[in-house]
Amino acid sequence: MRTEPLLTLKVYPFGVLMQRKTPQGCMEYLVDPAQLALQLAATVRLDTGILSSNTIYISQEGVQKVVVEYRKRQKTALFLEGTDAPVIIPMPDMLLFRRTHDKGIPDYRVFAVKERPTDLKAKLFHVPLPNIYDDGRVCWGSVQQLQVHQFTGTDLTEDWKILLGTGFGSHNAGRRSKSHPDDIRKKYLAMEQAKTRVYPKSDLIPANRTLEDILEGFRK
Hints:
By secondary structure, the chain is of the alpha+beta class. Helices cover about 15% and strands about 35% of the residues.
């Protein structure tokens, strides 16, 4: 049996015309193509789950995209406010979450992990960096972020550069290290002096959150 469409879209040089059948007859409306695209996209959701390599997770629902990238533990040069030369210290495994949408600047979260996550139940730890809130949000201050139009892919290399290339001050420098709870920057100096090769996992403070918790928070 042939079924007639309830709605038809016609694309003309001057715009998009929507034709809809109603009990009163056939009605036509001009619609905004951009708004139409948003409405159609909002019904589509993509979830990858845990991936391989550095990009471990991508989720897209409508115009909102979430990318989670893993950074393996490694020596890192960090600049502290008031100093000209960086401290070169080991940093633990870390995760950077970036959420983008059709308006405004991206939304970030950053946490430490004890190993590369293999599922969404992976436990998160407070990243041993100043300028990070307890919920993982980044206090950018005067840091120059990337322009909105640059956030189109899934590679967070430039995002990491901006985050770790800032000059770190005293804001939220406490409660980031078990051995130096008052100021994580003191931990940096101690590690640099001792020529510590790997950031001790035992020094990380639990954030009482999982990878899944952060992703769920983005969906609300």
